[in-house]
Design goal:
This protein has 8 helices and 7 strands; from the N terminus they run E-E-E-H-H-H-E-E-E-E-H-H-H-H-H. It is an alpha+beta fold. A 7-stranded mixed beta sheet has the order 2-1-3-7-6-5-4, sandwiched between helices. The longest helix is centred in the C-terminal third of the chain and has 64 residues.
């Protein structure tokens, strides 16, 4: 799809049509070869292809082509939908046009397009369109990091607060703690995608600050966005440390719960071992066992077994071992 934005309007252009003369921002979403050819012939510089955008070396992502500044950044999407992924997006800033190329839906592009629909004057120049788009991307990225931070807070409360109230509070089960581990994994995935996007955007803006013409008037806006990205990086580092702590704590709680279960089985074995000994004694078949002829022999044996079960448990409780 080929969308055109200018200071007066926005529209969708077919590959067989000519680009409007007042076009400022040209957005290519899943472009066809015909759409790429139309833009390249009209503007005089090449548009990055999907293979070009997949390159990871800096020289292939940040360069100047026929006086056009080409930047490819990795953007995080789907963080707030718990389906985080990273997709490349290219920005080509020419003297009179801004071209963006992407092969995935990115919400910040649509949000900025809607903003330009209300205030088309902010698309008067390619530099203004680019910085407005970068601002929308950084805002969306900040929203994603805030979402991850809230999720981490909720996981923390769920991990350390007991179920129930008063004296009847219970520890969380292993299944509940394993569910928290799954949520931690999803939060870590979103956080790692956000941090990757912050680093990629910082590199792209640093290159833009170096390559942009002085008369473009972008220095102040680039500095502001770099400052915002730096604060987002600090926030991501803080959330990452919390995630690491929660992961270690949750694994520790799971270990404690498993140990508690083993402790219960050990106590049960201890409680029933002495009665089993008594029952084994009186289960032996000998002719000369005086208790077999007593009327109170059976109650006496049951009493001994009960005392043999209670006494070790009471001693262990008194010693503080249980």
């Amino acid at each position: 799809m080929l969308r055109i934005f200018s200071a007066n309007h926005q529209c969708v252009v077919d590959a067989n049509e000519a680009l409007p003369g007042d076009a400022v921002w040209i957005d290519l979403l899943n472009p066809t070869p015909a759409e790429e050819k139309l833009v390249e012939q009209s503007l005089g510089f090449e548009v990055p292809t999907a293979d070009d955008m997949a390159e990871i070396e800096t020289s292939s992502r940040l360069y100047i082509d026929n006086e056009a500044i080409v930047m490819t950044a990795t953007l995080a999407t789907g963080i707030m939908a718990e389906a985080a992924e990273t997709v490349p997006a290219s920005f080509v800033l020419g003297r009179h046009h801004l071209v963006t190329v992407r092969y995935a839906e990115i919400r910040s592009f649509d949000r900025h397009a809607a903003h330009l629909d209300r205030q088309p004057g902010q698309c008067a120049t390619p530099g203004a369109a680019l910085m407005g788009l970068i601002d929308a991307i950084v805002d969306r990225l900040a929203d994603g990091l805030e979402h991850v931070g809230r999720e981490v807070d909720q996981i923390s409360r769920a991990a350390f607060r007991r179920v129930g109230t008063g004296n009847r509070q219970q520890r969380r089960s292993n299944l509940a703690l394993q569910a928290l581990l799954s949520r931690l994994g999803a939060a870590q995935d979103g956080l790692s995608k956000a941090r990757e996007s912050v680093v990629s955007l910082t590199r792209a803006l640093s290159f833009l600050a170096f390559a942009a013409p002085k008369d473009a008037g972008l220095a102040a806006q680039i500095k502001t966005q770099l400052r915002d990205l730096s604060s987002l990086g600090d926030q991501a580092t803080f959330v990452s440390s919390n995630l690491t702590f929660l992961l270690d704590a949750t694994l520790g709680l799971i270990s404690i719960e498993q140990t508690a279960v083993q402790k219960i089985f050990s106590v049960a074995s201890l409680v029933f071992l002495p009665p089993t000994l008594v029952a084994g004694v009186y289960g032996m078949n000998f002719d000369h066992m005086p208790e077999l002829e007593w009327v109170l022999g059976y109650p006496m044996a049951m009493g001994i077994m009960l005392a043999a079960a209670v006494l070790p448990y009471a001693i262990f409780r008194w010693r503080g071992w249980l």
